[in-house]
Write a structure and sequence with these properties.
The relative contact order is 0.05. This protein is α+β, with helices and mostly antiparallel strands. It is elongated and about 175 Å long. It folds into two domains: about 200 residues; about 130 residues, 2-Layer Sandwich (Heat Shock Protein 90), CATH 3.30.565. It is about 75% helix and about 10% strand.
């Protein structure tokens, strides 16, 4: 019976996650509310200080005005009138601002209205004093002073200012008390939240701790299994590599054997047949001209067959590879194929490479052969360049064309482009093979590198 493994998250982990989520949301909401309350308290305190500052400004302006008028009465210099003139405009704006600041406080609005009346009364006293001074001079002012006109008004203004400032102080004290209470509540809530969060974190730590060691055990088991698997795969890869190398060698030997048999046996037979046809044709030329012509056509077909045989032999095992070496074989093959395909050909091969291992020669020739066939079949190129060079590390072969290029996914289709076979030949000799786009993303370039064996 097949065992089914559940991949769902355990319920207790989901439960703990939801608790953490709610704690975080609650903490965030609480912090937001506390910040809003703190902002409201700061705004309220600024409002209280603004009211108190305006009350002090009004009281100071009235006192400055009274002092300046006394200086004017004593000296007669109109410079002393300047503070009173400034105060009249400034007091109007201060009263308007106070009215806006106190619009939510009916008690203070009432006190402000009373203060405004007292200011108007005091202003009338100032105006009356100025008129008396202009008409009777300092004597009239002295008489007014004896009467004590305006003294009670100033006392009432000071008293009312003290009352309004006291109410603001009381409101400020109440706000501070409320803020302290809210702070105590926030502190309690925050402490409780942090305690719960700490408990949840401890639970998570224990779960993660247990899960870590459980996972470590699973990883160790997997590592052991992977090591065993890698060892098995490595052995199988080595076996497949040896088998592949053996099959390639067998294939090349069979091709060489078949090429020799075709050359020796079939070649001699075809030559004999050609000679016989030539003799018979010569004898029938005068007596049976029609038969002679037919035999000549047969001889031409036979010669075409001989040429086909030669090409098959060259494909199976290039005779030039054994007789003239790798460089000449590559150049001869490339010249023939590009001439038939109508492609311009250039070679950059500066050595004969006569001393290299025969297995290297056949591998490099086959890779060149397959690469050039792909250029002719798929690249739609007009030029191809073959480079074969010796470096300090090994032999380097490159086939470069100016065709349409190769798609990235085409590299994974070895059956279509013979890439797998070329790569396998290079790997069996300890080398590397790569296919990529040419310079400026034009054409395709195949590169093969086979390193020299260490002595």
């Amino acid at each position: 019976m097949k065992k089914t493994t559940s991949t769902s998250i355990p319920l207790y982990i989901t439960f703990l996650f939801m608790i953490c989520l709610f704690i975080l949301i609650g903490n965030a909401y609480s912090s937001y509310q506390n910040l809003e309350k703190l902002k409201a308290n700061n705004d309220w305190m600024e409002h209280n200080w603004s009211v108190k500052d305006k009350l002090k400004d009004i009281n100071l302006l009235i006192m400055d005005s009274e002092s300046s008028l006394r200086g004017y009465f004593m000296s007669g210099n109109e410079v002393y009138m300047r503070p009173w003139e400034i105060a009249r405009g400034k007091l109007e704006s201060d009263f308007r601002e106070l009215d806006k600041l106190l619009q939510d406080n009916p008690s203070q609005i009432k006190n402000l209205a009373e203060l405004r009346k007292l200011y108007d009364s005091k202003a009338r006293v100032f105006e009356h004093g100025l008129a008396t001074y202009k008409e009777f001079g300092l004597t009239g002012i002295i008489e007014l002073a004896k009467v004590g006109e305006g003294r009670d008004v100033m006392d009432e203004i000071r008293l009312l200012d003290i009352i309004m400032e006291k109410e603001e102080n009381e409101a400020l004290a109440a706000r501070r008390q409320l803020s302290y209470t809210e702070y105590q509540d926030a502190l309690f809530f925050g402490t409780a939240t942090n305690a719960i969060a700490l408990l949840v974190l401890i639970l998570f730590y224990r779960l993660i701790y247990r899960s870590f060691y459980k996972q470590r055990g699973i990883e160790n088991a997997l590592k052991t299994a992977n090591d065993n698997l890698e060892s098995t795969v490595l052995k199988r890869t080595e076996q497949l590599s040896v088998l592949s190398h053996h099959l390639l060698n067998v294939s090349e030997k069979e091709k060489a054997k078949l090429a020799r048999e075709l050359h020796d046996e079939m070649g001699s037979n075809l030559t004999a047949i050609s000679m016989d046809i030539s003799v018979v044709t010569e004898k029938l030329k005068d007596k049976e001209p029609e038969l002679a012509k037919q035999l000549q056509r047969t001889k031409r077909a036979l010669l075409d067959t001989v040429d086909l045989k030669r090409r098959i032999i060259e494909d199976l095992r290039p005779s030039m590879l054994d007789n003239l070496g790798l460089s000449a074989s590559i150049q001869h093959y490339c010249e023939e194929v590009t001439a038939i395909a109508g492609i311009a050909y250039a070679a950059d091969i500066t050595e004969d490479f006569d001393t290299i291992d025969p297995a290297w020669s056949i591998a490099l020739f086959r890779i060149t052969q397959e690469s050039l066939n792909n250029v002719v079949k798929y690249a739609k190129a007009t030029e191809v360049k073959i480079s074969l060079k010796r470096t300090e590390q090994g032999l380097w072969l490159q086939v470069l064309d100016n065709g349409i290029g190769i798609q990235t996914d085409a590299i994974s289709k070895p059956k279509t482009h013979g890439i797998l076979g070329m790569r396998e030949r290079a790997l069996l000799l300890g080398g590397s093979f790569s296919v990529k786009s040419g310079p400026n993303n034009r054409g395709t370039v195949t590169e093969t590198f086979i390193p020299f064996k260490e002595q």
